[in-house]
Amino acid sequence: MALFNQGQYAETVALAQTMTARFPQNGFIWKVLSVALQRQAKDPLIATQKAAELLPHDVDAHHNLAMLFKNQGRLEEAVLSYRRVLTLKPDFVEAHCNLGNTLLGMGRIAEAVTSYRLALKIQPDSAATHYNLGNALRELERFDEAIESYLHALQIQPDLPEAHLNLGNVLRELGQFQKALASYRRVLEIKPDFNGVHCNIGNILLDLGQVDNAMASYRQAFDHAMANYDQALEVQPDITEAYSFLLFIQNYQPGQSASITFEAVQRFGELVTRQVQSYTSWRKKSGSTPIEHLRVGLVSGDFGNHPVGYFIEGILAACASNSFN
């Protein structure tokens, strides 16, 4: 343990592997090996499973296995392991919360609500658990209860931006636009660079008929996305849809010059282009000859007297190639 406590994880792994070879039935050594492998970002599954097998009453060993299953996407096994942990230690708050998160990710929402409520009976002052309970209740469309949970979270941790954001989302779904707008603006007061909030504000302002202000919010969302592209797409993957909507609204705004509209379209094209993934291989039947020409078909109900029909001409011209027809 001295090597582990000193952060010498490679040395800990080497020593633990030697010890497990000599004492293969010693669960504690497997447990140390498991944790040391995790610290080195190496796969600890075999060691973690062995530790749980040899230490059937060790809460930490089974909790480590449950978390590992969850991280690897083996959710059914994670649920079973978390339930095993809670059989051993029914008042283990973290295990209740982690079980709830796993069940929520599996779409087993009602069961997740039960887990969160059990956690709150033991630790009622957890803002994170109230927040997660609110998310689950929102999924069940129990909006009043979701609002109550978000407000409980914010009483405990007033500067929790995610709770303000999701409270705003529920309020918007209930048609309480002004309250939703206040929640979204509170998010920006706490964290001005919070991704996606400007889009939400734009949606609310559009609901309220404030088209000019909505467009300004959409532009702010897009500018932030372009400045923080990778992070923005990870958190708000539908940013392109929001900006597309902005372009649509802009066409109906008086006083919009063609040059400004064209510049906006070019910027949108830049955003979309960054998301394009080029194909490098094509599926074909086994034993067939190599593909020399790729036949591409474009089908749309808008190829008649419609902007799409006119705009597609430039795309077809740009795609002229001997490699497909």
Description of the structure:
By secondary structure, the chain is mainly alpha-helical. 70% of the residues lie in helices and 0% in strands. It contains 18 helices and no strands. It is extended. About 2% of the residues have low confidence.
From the structure above, extract its key features.
single chain; 325 residues; mainly alpha; extended
List the helices and strands and how they pair.
Layout: H1 2-5, H2 9-22, H3 27-39, H4 45-54, H5 59-71, H6 75-88, H7 93-105, H8 109-122, H9 127-139, H10 143-156, H11 161-173, H12 177-190, H13 197-207, H14 211-227, H15 229-235, H16 239-250, H17 258-275, H18 307-318
Helix pairs in contact: 2-3, 3-4, 4-5, 5-6, 6-7, 7-8, 8-9, 9-10, 9-11, 10-11, 11-12, 12-13, 13-14, 14-15, 14-16, 16-17
Give a quick precis of the structure:
The chain is mostly helical. The chain has helices spanning 2-5, 9-22, 27-39, 45-54, 59-71, 75-88, 93-105, 109-122, 127-139, 143-156, 161-173, 177-190, 197-207, 211-227, 229-235, 239-250, 258-275, 307-318.
